[in-house]
């Protein structure tokens, strides 16, 4: 087996989320160093607040201020912080029941070591220097033996935060697997390989290791092309971002000779309005290209419709 | 209430679970398992009435990743198919309801997960509350560690007892050739205190498949079908600070609705990726010392994310198929700290 192909794959999104009235008030409060909870029908105070009672599903809107001090209800010592976590030095994850609240908030506790942390210990919020209306406006908790006065805030603010942007990034090392790796390896030699289904004999390009019709593994490698036939096509009139190709151009399904599945590619070397079904084409490689840049006419007579009609 | 149709697990198969499988794509990893369960029943893909799968785009790092795996089940000509972005145990639940309606007599359920391309501890943070929790990136081990400390504070377990759960599970796994961690495994250092590496599941890749059949069809396909006497799943509040982490009322309710408490079970396959979670589940399910818990080694021996719950039901069923159990419980979980729980009660015909 050839060396396993691998490449880094980064998936990154700035998730933009809108807030309902309760979450909006809570996160705006954090920006103003005020912590708000919400009252349930049976008189409990939920912090962090939610819009619906988790027990009764009743809509709840009654905001109430709680203290920035509280008690640790459980904890876990994190000696090796990971990317994105609140502190980059060893810290404790904590659930903290703030004074006046009946539920606990998850956050980080800055403490010198695990010996300094215990369930029941008293803590207070350490505010972030710059706050924007996000859970990270709480930089972390810190040990604190006292209690704090409430500001008497009613939960109404000017300039409410109505949304958050939560960036997320995950890193992967992608491996294409046996069949697709063989396809990519062959492309590096400017060859195209597919795989034949042992049951229906169809040749799949690019191969994925399975025949979707028969549901069996494909394994017999078959070289196809390099020439092929345009089975169908479209004319693209809108320029894609970051794509240096003049419009209009033609994008086509191309059945390479010997393949039972058409792959797709751009057609060049011919005016866009002269491309047609049945046109015989061949790949054009550019220096250093890892796949054909486009396909151009071979000059052969067009293929008969009957030859490619099953591949459209 | 008894189901309106008798439905059974008639075949179960799984891959060997390994730390990496980067020489195979998902469908390449999955296909031998699909053929295994089809061969056991003598069926072809075209004989299957309904197909349902469980997997996660976040593990694959790719949108609609399950469509690639569909090539492995022969999706042309068109088949009746569905997918859940959950553990395959929930796909099994959907297939079970489909068979209950009478729309199909057989179902193929499969699940797979390759954790090796990414960092599963980071990936799982993306299933958390996106407003208050996910921006802090608390990883799956950290959240389980909070639950473990709550149990220790409540006096329900201690670190030696947790080490005992780890040891028993991996010793049991010596008889499971598919398991990733078997035999003596060191408890190791703290990963997130109070959990040590030994308290945590291995990270690995794997797949599993199950075939369900209704009524007489089940008897045709399997010598001793594992009849699903009841199955139910329940969820708790997403806010960790709202829940009592030392208990699992959702598991207890699901078990009650699945009929688990009507008569004792002899075997329980529990989906407890962390040792501390077994403590919670044993209590919620009222399992006595006479119940054989996780004879397969459980998720502490192999934890292919998205398949590990389906494997619990499959392992429970396989023990009934082999005559090693008469009434077994299969459990699956999803979400942090046992947030969502599914319980299935399986029985073999009286002997």
Helices and strands of chain A, in N-to-C order? EHEEEEEEEEEHEEEEEEEEEEH
Strand content of chain A: 35-45%
**Major sheet description of chain B:** 10 strands, mixed
Helix/strand-derived category of chain A reads: mainly beta
Helix content of chain B: 25-40%
Strand elements of chain B, count: 12
Order of helices and strands of chain B: EHEHHEHEHHHEEEHEHEHEHEE
Low-confidence stretches of chain B: none
Shape of chain A: elongated
**Number of helical segments with 4 or more residues of chain B:** 11
* Cα shape of chain B: globular
Oligomer: heterodimer
How would you characterize the largest beta sheet of chain A? 5 strands, antiparallel
Largest interface: A-B, 66 and 61 residues
The strands making up the biggest β-sheet of chain A line up spatially as: 7-6-5-8-9
Number of helices of chain A: 3
Strand order of the largest sheet of chain B: 3-2-4-7-1-8-12-11-9-10
Helix/strand class of chain B? alpha/beta
Total DSSP E strands of chain A: 20
Question: Topology, please?
Answer:
The complex is a heterodimer of chains A (312) and B (351).
Chain A: E1 7-18, H1 21-31, E2 35-39, E3 45-46, E4 63-66, E5 69-78, E6 91-98, E7 105-109, E8 122-127, E9 138-143, E10 163-174, H2 177-187, E11 192-196, E12 203-204, E13 210-211, E14 216-217, E15 220-224, E16 228-236, E17 249-256, E18 263-267, E19 280-284, E20 294-297, H3 305-308
Antiparallel strand pairs in A: 1-10, 2-3, 2-4, 5-6, 5-8, 6-7, 8-9, 11-12, 11-15, 13-14, 16-17, 16-19, 17-18, 19-20
Chain B: E1 7-14, H1 26-41, E2 50-54, H2 57-60, H3 66-69, E3 81-84, H4 88-100, E4 106-114, H5 120-123, H6 140-153, H7 159-172, E5 190-192, E6 195-196, E7 205-214, H8 215-221, E8 226-235, H9 249-257, E9 267-269, H10 275-284, E10 292-293, H11 308-321, E11 327-334, E12 340-347
Parallel strand pairs in B: 2-3, 2-4, 9-10, 9-11
Antiparallel strand pairs in B: 1-7, 1-8, 4-7, 5-6, 8-12, 11-12
GO molecular function (chain B): acyltransferase activity, transferring groups other than amino-acyl groups
InterPro entries (chain B): Thiolase-like (IPR016039)
Organism (chain B): Streptomyces sp. R21
């Amino acid at each position: 087996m050839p060396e396993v192909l691998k490449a880094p794959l980064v998936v990154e999104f700035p998730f933009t989320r809108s807030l309902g009235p309760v979450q909006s008030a809570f996160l705006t409060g954090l920006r103003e160093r005020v912590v708000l909870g919400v009252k349930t029908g049976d008189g409990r105070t939920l912090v962090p607040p939610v819009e619906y009672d988790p027990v009764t599903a009743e809509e709840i809107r009654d905001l109430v201020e709680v203290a920035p001090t509280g008690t640790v209800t459980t904890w876990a010592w994190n000696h090796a912080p990971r990317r994105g976590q609140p502190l980059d030095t060893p810290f404790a994850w904590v659930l903290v029941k703030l004074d006046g609240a009946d539920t606990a908030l998850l956050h980080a506790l800055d403490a010198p070591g695990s010996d300094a942390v215990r369930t029941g210990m008293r803590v207070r919020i350490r505010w972030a220097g710059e706050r924007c209306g996000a859970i990270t406006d709480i930089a972390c908790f810190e040990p604190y033996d006292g209690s704090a006065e409430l500001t008497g805030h009613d939960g109404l603010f000017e300039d409410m935060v109505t949304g958050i942007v939560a960036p997320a990034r995950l890193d992967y090392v992608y491996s294409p697997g046996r069949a697709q790796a063989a396809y990519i390896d062959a492309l590096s030699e400017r060859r195209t390989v597919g795989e034949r289904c042992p049951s229906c004999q169809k040749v799949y390009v690019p191969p994925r290791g399975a025949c979707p019709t028969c549901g069996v593994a494909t394994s017999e490698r078959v070289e196809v092309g390099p020439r092929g036939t345009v089975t169908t096509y479209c004319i693209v009139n809108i320029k894609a971002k970051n794509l240096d190709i003049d419009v209009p151009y033609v994008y086509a399904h191309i059945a390479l000779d010997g393949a039972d599945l058409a792959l797709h590619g751009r057609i060049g070397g011919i005016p866009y309005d002269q491309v047609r079904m049945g046109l015989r084409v061949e790949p054009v490689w550019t220096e250093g290209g890892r796949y054909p840049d486009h396909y151009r006419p071979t000059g052969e007579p067009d293929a008969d419709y009957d030859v490619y009609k099953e591949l459209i | 209430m008894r189901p309106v149709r008798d439905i059974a697990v008639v075949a179960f198969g799984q891959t060997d679970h390994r730390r990496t499988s980067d020489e195979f794509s998902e469908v390449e990893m999955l296909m031998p398992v699909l053929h295994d369960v089809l061969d056991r029943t003598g069926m072809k893909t075209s004989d299957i009435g309904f197909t349902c799968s469980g997997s996660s785009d976040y593990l694959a790092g790719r949108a609609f990743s399950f469509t690639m795996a569909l090539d492995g089940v022969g999706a042309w000509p068109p088949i009746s198919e569905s997918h859940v972005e959950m553990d395959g145990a929930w796909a099994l639940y959907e297939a079970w309801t489909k068979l209950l309606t009478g729309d199909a007599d057989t179902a193929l359920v499969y699940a797979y997960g390759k954790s090796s391309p990414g960092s599963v501890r980071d990936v799982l943070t993306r299933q958390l509350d996106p407003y208050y929790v996910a921006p802090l990136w608390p990883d799956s081990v950290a959240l389980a560690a909070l639950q473990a400390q709550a149990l220790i504070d409540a006096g329900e377990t201690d670190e030696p007892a947790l080490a005992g759960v780890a040891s028993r599970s991996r010793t049991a796994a010596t008889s499971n050739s598919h398991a990733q961690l078997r035999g003596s495994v060191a408890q190791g250092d703290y990963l997130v205190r109070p959990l040590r590496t030994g308290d945590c599941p291995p990270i690995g890749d794997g797949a599993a498949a199950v075939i369900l059949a209704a009524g007489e069809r089940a008897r045709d396909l399997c010598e001793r079908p594992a009849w699903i006497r009841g199955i139910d799943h329940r969820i708790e509040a997403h806010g960790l600070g709202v829940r009592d982490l030392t208990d699992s009322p959702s598991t207890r309710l699901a078990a009650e609705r699945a009929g688990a408490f009507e008569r004792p079970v002899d075997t329980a396959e529990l989906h407890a990726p962390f040792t501390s979670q077994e403590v919670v589940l044993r209590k919620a399910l009222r399992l006595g010392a006479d119940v054989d818990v996780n004879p397969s080694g459980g998720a502490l021996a192999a934890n292919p994310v998205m398949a590990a719950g389906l494997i619990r039901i499959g392992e429970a069923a396989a023990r009934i198929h082999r005559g090693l159990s008469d009434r077994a419980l299969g459990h699956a979980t999803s979400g942090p700290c046992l947030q969502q729980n599914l319980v299935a009660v399986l029985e073999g015909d009286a002997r």
